[in-house]
Protein backbone atom coordinates (compact mmCIF):
# COMPACT_ATOMS: atom_id res chain seq x y z
CA UNK A 1 0.00 0.00 0.00
CA UNK A 2 2.85 2.41 0.72
CA UNK A 3 4.04 2.47 -2.88
CA UNK A 4 0.50 3.27 -4.04
CA UNK A 5 0.13 6.01 -1.40
CA UNK A 6 3.10 7.83 -2.95
CA UNK A 7 2.29 7.06 -6.59
CA UNK A 8 1.73 9.77 -9.20
CA UNK A 9 -1.99 8.99 -9.16
CA UNK A 10 -2.36 9.13 -5.38
CA UNK A 11 -4.44 11.97 -3.97
CA UNK A 12 -1.97 12.37 -1.09
CA UNK A 13 -0.55 15.88 -0.70
CA UNK A 14 2.70 16.49 -2.64
CA UNK A 15 4.43 17.53 0.61
CA UNK A 16 3.55 14.15 2.15
CA UNK A 17 4.87 12.28 -0.88
CA UNK A 18 8.13 14.24 -0.88
CA UNK A 19 8.55 13.70 2.85
CA UNK A 20 8.21 9.93 2.41
CA UNK A 21 11.01 9.97 -0.17
CA UNK A 22 13.34 11.39 2.49
CA UNK A 23 12.62 8.73 5.12
CA UNK A 24 15.40 6.38 5.98
CA UNK A 25 15.59 3.17 7.94
CA UNK A 26 13.83 3.72 11.26
CA UNK A 27 11.88 6.75 10.02
CA UNK A 28 8.61 5.13 11.07
CA UNK A 29 7.43 3.33 14.17
CA UNK A 30 4.43 1.30 15.24
CA UNK A 31 2.13 3.38 17.44
CA UNK A 32 -1.40 3.70 18.81
CA UNK A 33 -1.34 0.01 19.76
CA UNK A 34 -4.24 0.38 22.22
CA UNK A 35 -6.51 1.76 19.47
CA UNK A 36 -5.53 0.22 16.16
CA UNK A 37 -1.82 -0.41 15.58
CA UNK A 38 -0.51 1.86 12.85
CA UNK A 39 2.96 2.69 11.57
CA UNK A 40 3.60 6.43 11.78
CA UNK A 41 6.29 8.74 10.45
CA UNK A 42 8.25 10.19 13.35
CA UNK A 43 7.02 13.78 13.49
CA UNK A 44 5.76 16.10 16.25
CA UNK A 45 2.40 14.30 16.42
CA UNK A 46 4.15 10.93 16.69
CA UNK A 47 6.29 12.28 19.55
CA UNK A 48 3.11 13.25 21.44
CA UNK A 49 1.64 9.79 20.86
CA UNK A 50 4.88 8.06 21.86
CA UNK A 51 5.12 10.08 25.08
CA UNK A 52 1.48 9.34 25.92
CA UNK A 53 1.88 5.62 25.28
CA UNK A 54 5.11 5.45 27.30
CA UNK A 55 3.40 6.95 30.34
CA UNK A 56 0.50 4.50 30.00
CA UNK A 57 -2.18 6.80 28.59
CA UNK A 58 -5.70 5.38 28.53
CA UNK A 59 -7.65 4.65 25.37
CA UNK A 60 -9.70 7.78 26.06
CA UNK A 61 -6.56 9.94 26.30
CA UNK A 62 -5.21 8.52 23.07
CA UNK A 63 -8.52 9.09 21.30
CA UNK A 64 -8.54 12.70 22.49
CA UNK A 65 -4.95 13.19 21.28
CA UNK A 66 -5.80 11.63 17.91
CA UNK A 67 -8.90 13.77 17.52
CA UNK A 68 -10.79 13.83 14.23
CA UNK A 69 -9.28 14.18 10.80
CA UNK A 70 -5.66 13.88 11.95
CA UNK A 71 -4.70 11.54 9.06
CA UNK A 72 -6.45 13.82 6.57
CA UNK A 73 -4.56 16.78 7.99
CA UNK A 74 -1.21 15.10 7.39
CA UNK A 75 -1.62 12.92 4.34
CA UNK A 76 -4.08 14.94 2.26
CA UNK A 77 -3.57 18.51 3.53
CA UNK A 78 0.21 18.27 3.90
CA UNK A 79 0.62 19.25 7.57
CA UNK A 80 3.81 17.27 8.18
CA UNK A 81 4.18 18.46 11.77
CA UNK A 82 0.72 17.96 13.29
CA UNK A 83 -0.77 15.36 10.97
CA UNK A 84 -0.97 11.62 11.44
CA UNK A 85 1.42 10.40 8.74
CA UNK A 86 0.67 6.72 8.19
CA UNK A 87 3.03 4.72 5.96
CA UNK A 88 4.53 1.24 5.95
CA UNK A 89 8.02 0.12 6.85
CA UNK A 90 8.83 -0.24 3.15
CA UNK A 91 8.78 3.56 2.93
CA UNK A 92 12.53 3.59 3.60
CA UNK A 93 13.03 1.95 0.20
CA UNK A 94 10.85 4.36 -1.80
CA UNK A 95 13.16 6.67 -3.73
CA UNK A 96 10.86 8.17 -6.35
CA UNK A 97 7.24 8.94 -7.17
CA UNK A 98 6.20 6.65 -10.00
CA UNK A 99 2.95 5.74 -11.78
CA UNK A 100 0.82 2.82 -10.59
CA UNK A 101 1.50 1.08 -13.91
CA UNK A 102 5.21 1.01 -13.10
CA UNK A 103 4.54 -0.18 -9.54
CA UNK A 104 2.49 -3.08 -10.90
CA UNK A 105 5.12 -3.94 -13.51
CA UNK A 106 7.78 -3.98 -10.78
CA UNK A 107 5.66 -6.21 -8.54
CA UNK A 108 5.05 -8.69 -11.34
CA UNK A 109 8.71 -8.67 -12.34
CA UNK A 110 9.82 -9.22 -8.73
CA UNK A 111 7.33 -12.07 -8.39
CA UNK A 112 8.56 -13.74 -11.56
CA UNK A 113 12.17 -13.43 -10.40
CA UNK A 114 11.32 -14.90 -7.00
CA UNK A 115 9.57 -17.98 -8.38
CA UNK A 116 11.98 -18.61 -11.24
CA UNK A 117 13.70 -21.92 -10.69
CA UNK A 118 11.25 -23.13 -8.05
CA UNK A 119 9.49 -26.30 -9.15
CA UNK A 120 5.70 -26.48 -9.08
CA UNK A 121 5.86 -29.01 -6.24
CA UNK A 122 7.96 -26.67 -4.10
CA UNK A 123 5.72 -23.68 -4.80
CA UNK A 124 2.64 -25.31 -3.37
CA UNK A 125 4.15 -27.67 -0.82
CA UNK A 126 3.00 -26.36 2.53
UniProtKB/TrEMBL annotation:
InterPro entries: Aldolase_TIM
Gene Ontology terms for molecular function: monooxygenase activity
Keyword Oxidoreductase: yes
Keywords tagged on the record: Monooxygenase, Oxidoreductase
Record-given protein name: Nitronate monooxygenase
Pfam families the record matches: NMO
